[in-house]
Predict the structure.
Amino acid sequence: MKFNLNKFFILIASLLVFSVSVYAQRGVEIQYASPLDPSKKPTPIYFGPAFGFNIMGHSMNIPTFEEDLTCPNFKNASGLGIYAGMTLEHLFGDVATSSSSLIFRLLYNMYPGSVAVEDKVYSQYVTSADGYVPSNLEHTMDIDYNAFTFEVMYKINPVPAIGLGIVVGPALDYIIKKDRTQKSKIVTPNNAQFNVDNFGEGTIFEDNYRTVLRYDGEIEESSSIRFGVKAGIQYEILLGSKLYIAPVVAYNFGITSLSSIHTWRVSPLQVGIDLRFAF
């Protein structure tokens, strides 16, 4: 199908005109909503739910085994989480012409992650019918990291009467879960197993002794507080005079390290929707 550039620009122009005309209704319709009090001013407070997805980035450089620095390191875990909570916006100036505000959010965030690295070994830990054999291993780590979050965002609409807004501000997390699970799995050869005699008592094995659980518990020396700086864009779509939705995309850059013994920053790309009602 041939792309028609003229039709594309006409469509964009039409959307902008529609946005301006609808966006302007926020002040006009509310300001004279009461026939008994035509001077009544619209409320500058909007409140409602917020929800979306966390596209995770765990920036880390962590040894797979502290006691053996020749092993590879875990780096750059990824994952997909969710967030949900409530949001409140206070508009500055006249509601009909306001181009800036403060946005407060109280959220529950899930920041999961997973990472895998390959390793080659020849040791007493892996055996087969032929004795000790060279083996290819895969070390994995799954991260379970959840938080209650408080955000204060400053929003500005750079173009008057257009719903496009730029948001920036701090994000403070109180961590309520910070666990990790680490395993080692024999990839090749197919007939090899971990040698049970060379592991401590109570070690858990899976997959016919081809996978061993290395760690399952709270992240070592982890902090209960995370501080980040968040910046992004949103677009306000009015659904009448007292309700609007705002799709938002923002990057939440982690300033503090998750662990005091390793550099480990949690920085999600957050994509979601705010739904706000006028008081």
The radius of gyration is 26 Å. The chain has two helices and 16 strands. The first helix runs from residue 5 to 23. The CA atoms of residues 143 and 180 lie 5 Å apart.
